[in-house]
Specification:
Layout lengths: L5 H22 L17 E2 L1 H22 L8 H19 L10 E2 H25 L10 H26 L22 H17 L2 H28 L16
Helix pairs in contact: 1-4, 1-7, 2-3, 2-4, 3-4, 5-6, 6-7
EC number: 1.3.1.22
InterPro entries: 3-oxo-5-alpha-steroid_4-DH (IPR016636), 3-oxo-5_a-steroid_4-DH_C (IPR001104), SRD5A/TECR (IPR039357)
Subcellular location: Endoplasmic reticulum membrane; Microsome membrane
């Protein structure tokens, strides 16, 4: 039976933090080459729906497998179950719902490969910690860290899903042109969907109060924060009527 190794959790979390800084250094000046920033090179691509499904699936399956393989099954305390469910809930949506509604462009296989590797890695780290290592008191569900983190997680997920819906409505089936996002938090920021996901994972980190979750939240910020910035620059450059009052990522600040 698998045992908790605190040194493994520390090593994997530290590596995730280092990967976050690497992402920031690579993509702060030059955007990651997919979607509206993709260079038209002759690279193998998969349809967006298939690519998103394959990429996100490990983040749902790996924790689920870790939970299934644990003997005896871990059902207590309630806080542990809820936190594991939050992580799997997000990736159930990203794997089994989001891909079948997306209208994105075909996705480069090279980026899909690295995205899938990350989802395996992070799915293992978060699942392994919560299922084999995390220790919470029985009253964790009433702790201010859990309740405030849960509220942030739900708020962020709501913003993320609503923003994705608004982006989908910009395009008719078969369209690939880019338009100015309108409504919701897009009134204030260009990267409303990214802002929602960042809030979501920092909420998760507060609710779990763990190094792996904070490392993942930091990685999310370093990975999609620069993307929101480059989206903002793209919109300003492409559309002369783009609202000048909008910020890139954080309302009224950045």
């Amino acid at each position: 039976s698998m045992q908790c190794l605190p040194s493994l959790v520390l090593a994997l979390s530290s590596l995730l933090g280092a990967l976050a800084l690497l992402q920031l250094s690579l993509y702060l000046r030059v955007p990651s080459r997919y979607g509206k920033h993709e260079e038209r090179l002759c690279r193998a691509r998969l349809p967006a729906r298939c690519a998103w499904f394959l990429q996100e699936l490990p983040s749902f399956l790996v924790p689920a497998l870790l939970l299934a393989l644990r003997s005896p099954p871990r059902l207590e305390p309630l806080g542990c179950r809820l936190l594991c469910c939050l992580f799997c809930w997000h990736y159930f949506y990203r794997t089994f719902i989001y891909p079948f509604f997306t209208r994105g462009r075909p996705f480069p296989v090279q980026l899909l490969f690295f995205g899938t590797l990350f989802c395996i890695y992070n799915g293992f780290l978060q699942g392994y910690y919560l299922i084999y290592c995390a220790e919470y008191p029985n009253n964790w569900c009433t702790d201010i860290r859990f309740t405030s983190g849960l509220l942030l997680f739900l708020l962020g997920m709501g913003i993320n899903i609503h923003s994705d819906l608004l982006l989908r409505q910009l395009r008719k089936p078969g369209e690939v042109t880019y338009k100015i996002p309108q409504g919701g938090l897009f009134t204030y920021v260009s990267g409303a969907n990214y802002f929602g996901e960042i809030v979501e994972w920092f909420g998760f980190a507060i609710a779990t109060w763990s190094l792996p979750a904070f490392a993942f939240a930091f990685f999310t910020l370093c990975c999609i924060g620069p993307r929101a910035y480059h989206h903002h620059r793209y919109y300003l450059k492409t559309f002369t009527d783009y609202p000048k009052s909008r910020k890139a990522l954080i309302p009224f600040v950045f």
